[in-house]
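To: structure subgroup
Subject: Chain for Friday's discussion

All,

I'm putting the inputs and outputs inline so they're searchable in the archive.
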Amino acid sequence: MSHWIARLALVAGFIAAAFVGAAGPAYRYAGFELGHSFKLMEWGVYAAAAAAVLAIVWIIVSAVTRSMEGLMSFILALVLAIGAAYMPLNMRATAEKLPLIHDITTDTANPPAFVAIAPLRAAAPNGTDYKTDPAEQQKGYADIQPLIMADVAPADLFTRAEATARAMNWEIVAAEAAEGRIEATDTTAWWGFKDDIVIRVAAEGTGSRLDIRSMSRVGKSDLGKNAERVRAFIAKLKEAK
């Protein structure tokens, strides 16, 4: 009997992994609406919970019958259930602790404006207008600040910034040296979300100042992805020669 319980747990584990694993590709390649893709993840969590319950039943039955039949199925079921449930539950926990924003910039008073990318976002749920409450960004991402390089001329910093953006595999949409503006799009690996970036380089004292803005086309919360992108860009740019 314990053998069949373990097998049922394993089936539930595979179903959980399949639902969660399919969520991103279903949105990116199969035309699923975002809400439907999230529903797949929700079903995956339910299936993972079922696998966990069956695993507990297996432990009880095995203890009573003193039989270890189905041990490998039990172990694999637990691995699949934990692995499948981790990502959606972690996403939810992250969303609850971070500000509900999807537009991050180093200059909240005068954020860089999208120009070339604006038409590409015409049909996106999130427009290009800056609507983030600066206090909310400060609360969650106080480290996101302008990059000041006192010993680098604006033209040189612009060249470095463009090279860094290309090195990060962003799709460059515009690079207007005369305006000090770079616009690019970054596509996330699993979901295929398109997030847009605009970089502004200007003179500051004897050197230069760089501001950057990263904004999601869809979603109310970006789960910290835009701030992560801004941090990565600035860190890589500082290393550039």
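Points worth raising on Friday:
DSSP finds six helices and six strands in the chain.
The CA atoms of residues 213 and 222 lie 13 Å apart.

D.
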